[in-house]
Amino acid sequence: PRMSDPDDDGSEPFLAERDLAAEAMAADMDPWVIFDGRKTPRAEFDDWLDSNRPSRVFRHGELGHNAEPVGWIAVYGPGSPPAPERGDAEGLQEDWERLLSSGRLVTFETVKELALNRRVLSGKWLMHLDTGFKVDHAWGSIARAVLDGWVPAAKVSPYCPSSDAKHVICVPSDDFTDESQVVRLDAAIRAVGIKCPLSYKPDAYTYLGLYRGNRWKLCPTIYESRYDLECIPRRSRITSKVTMTELT
Predict the structure, then answer these.
(1) Which pTM does this prediction carry?
(2) How confident is the model over 36-45, as pLDDT tens digits?
(3) Which of 194, 176, 191, 29 is nearest to 116 (CA)?
(4) Is the bond leading into 233 cis (omega within 30 degrees of zero)?
(5) Closest CA to 188 of 148, 230, 247
């Protein structure tokens, strides 16, 4: 399990930042339901997937379903790397405090510079989906892609009846500064039939508390991917939210 993110949870932007942060941290601390292809035979996967559909696993537990709370449902493939290098997140936070007290302008480039210095380079593509068939179907496709080695790992949030938030599926990458890696991961996600909009967020933003509506007006995601149904052959168009230019 790795640190989570309020923006992962699909909540409405009006929730106070600290409420979002507290909820995301609580999800990380609660038990995860994990299929680890490095240890568990592939033959057991279909039953596991069917028993743990995100729309039927309750975030806070429910009689007749899962008795205990579940923070995340996750899949690791047989070739999944160990947890991505976390870098020096504490050092990053110290550098950030120093930056803020220096009065220097806070931009994507200054945050990227801090993240590179401390090797906090991981990030993830996020997709938000309605509960029920939509999330279960998309999650099944992504989870199989993980086991087949097309995608490094993935996690999905369980169902939370007390909130109208959508589910979120997160697919990690190990370097948000490597544009070609980010583009390749988007292509791998699209190749399994995912057509909904995707957004990409560096983990450094999470460690620094850069969520929606932050006072520096930094967009909390740095790339957006929209699937173009008009184009032949169909493909996704990825836009940098930093430079507002198209990558693909």
Answers:
(1) 0.88
(2) 999 999 999 9
(3) 176
(4) yes
(5) 148
